[in-house]
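Onboarding guide, step 5: your first structure request.
Type a short instruction followed by the sequence, for example:

Predict the 3D structure of this protein.
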Amino acid sequence: MNQIREKFESVMGSVATWAGENIYLKAITEGFMNTMPIILGCCIFAIVGNLPIQPWTDFLNQIGLYTVIQQFISATSNLLGLYVVGTIAYSLTKSKGQDPVVGLVICLAAYVALVPLQYVELGENNWASMFNAAYFGSNGIFAALLVGLLISSLYCWLMSKNLVLKLPASVPPMVTRSLAPTFAAMIIFTIVLAIKYAFTLTGFGNLFDMITQIIVTPILKFGASPIAFIGLYTLCNLCWFFGIHPSPLLNAYVPVLTVLGMKNMEAFLTGQPLPDPIWPVVYACCYIGGTGNTLGLCLASLFAKSQKYKELRKLCIPPNIFNINEPIIFGFPVMLNPIYFVPMVLSSVVSGGIGWILAYIVPYTLNPAAQTPWIMPGFIQAFLQGGIGFMIIWLVCLAAMFLLYLPFFKMDDARAFQEEQAMGIAEEEKELVLAQEGE
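The system replies with structure tokens like these:
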């Protein structure tokens, strides 16, 4: 096991280290994480406005609040690309030692400038220009990612070449600082204008449609498949078993998850059929209690005979309910414990497969707007996102995880119980010898 661990750590450990230290991956991760206040700040309205209770929905419609809530969500969570480009640019510009606010503003302006305008005739000689909101949402996430990385990198490079507007010392520092990037901004916007014009000469028409057709569609076609989620979490389980935190793998998948969620949310708010209603179920079922589906092992510990696991379950079960499984990973331990290798690595295959099948059998109404923090207990999150049907699917998968872990836990518990018995006998013999010597 030590040899396997060393070989695995030499490969995955170096990958994880590279991913953790790469400034571009860090900028993407921080950028998406910094948009969480928008998503979570609006989640209460998304949940309350879309509870799977028909009388409540009818009441909201009667007082006119339902439409207002949907418009509010569309103006916040559905414009995520607009926020992502700014947060990524801010993070990357800051890491490169330049003014992050200027980097954010320039990237935001470049992103908006690349979005195609549409013109609508309102009346005689009266035209209105407007943006298609889809380019700021699901169709704009990957474009926002590229613009945030490339434009901010170009800005930092130009500034590092001392390409700044120099003013006399008598000019106030605030004015000097705000005007210094003028030349860099002119060069960047000239390039952006050239890119925008060049795409009008192609069959795509604009950058966003090109990215969607060439990059996003193939990625989402595979990324939305249950096999992709099951494979991803199986790899995460393997890393976690060897003590390598799976967050770098999951962070790399965040843009795909964001686009998938945005597409479902946009369809939901406009009353259209959801394009990918299955993946949220499979995704939730691959992560029951944390990486490795360890909540099933926590339930198995309720049948412990050894004093060791009777005490450990008191420390492991409460946090695991909230998807925090470090106590059980390092406390039992599960990490590098050969007994739990098979159930932990294969847990997402079993639970994800069951969830995949039940998603076609058990009726549920998915509400993709009901986003919750990651520490939300799984059964509550399932109910808020899909009502009773989704919660039943999740609970069935939890039961399957309990049955998967139970025989392996019994082996581990029996070994611990025997050790305790042997220690108890040894202590009794020691006390007897001491008593005899005392006599």
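Each response can be followed by summary notes, for example: The chain has 19 helices and two strands.
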